[in-house]
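Handout, section B. The chain below has 261 residues.
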Amino acid sequence: MAINRRTFLKAAGLTTLAGVAGHAAMELLAPGALEASGPSKVGEYPEALTAKRWAMLIDTEKFTTAQVYQKCIDACHVLHNVPHIPGDQEIKWLWTDSFKHAFPDQQHALVPDRVKNQPFMVLCNHCDNPPCVRVCPTKATFKRDDGIVMMDMHRCIGCRYCMAGCPYGARSFNFWDPRPFIENIDPYYPTRMKGVVEKCTFCEDRLAKGQLPACVEASEGALIFGDLANEDSEVRRVLRERYSLRRKPSLGTNPHVFYLI
């Protein structure tokens, strides 16, 4: 059974009147709906790329020009029909930010100028302990067994609790119908609608077809993607050889995007 806004509002009212927990109230009105099967999982197709725990490495030494950043951003946003909305209501899956904002808890006077003054590619961190998943009342956002934090647009009711819960600002809300702001709509990827949240999905649709994430392919080696649980994988080898940072590690979210310094 699908959960729509009317069902959610009924559950919210029941919760208020009877003091019933949100999940329990939803089960009373829509039994089993929250446990309904989600989108297809990686591994259903013979050519699919699979992993026990996906992770991404960002080699900051290879992002030497603005063009390298933009190639990655364009590859992601064009493929996923991410609209270009000017102003403070922009939609972003992949973007850049300063060291000061990306790593606020790792500031000190002796940070090298190259690091301090360089833009950093930022995106959803696909955390092991994602706050966005815990606060979502309809399970529209959920974590797969391989670590990818997903969004089910059909379950999203636009409450934006996930945006408040994410400490990385990795989620965007569609205040408007995004379709008029997409220059060339890719017919092979679904567009979203007004009133839902969206974000990076580590290109789970491409992994299912045996392809690496679009930004990784466009980066010409600046982004590395692989199975962190596999000791012989490239991501594990590089992490053994290079020093890396993660964003806001003190929060305990355990991000799976690593920055090679």
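Note. The chain has ten helices and ten strands. Compare this with the example in section A.
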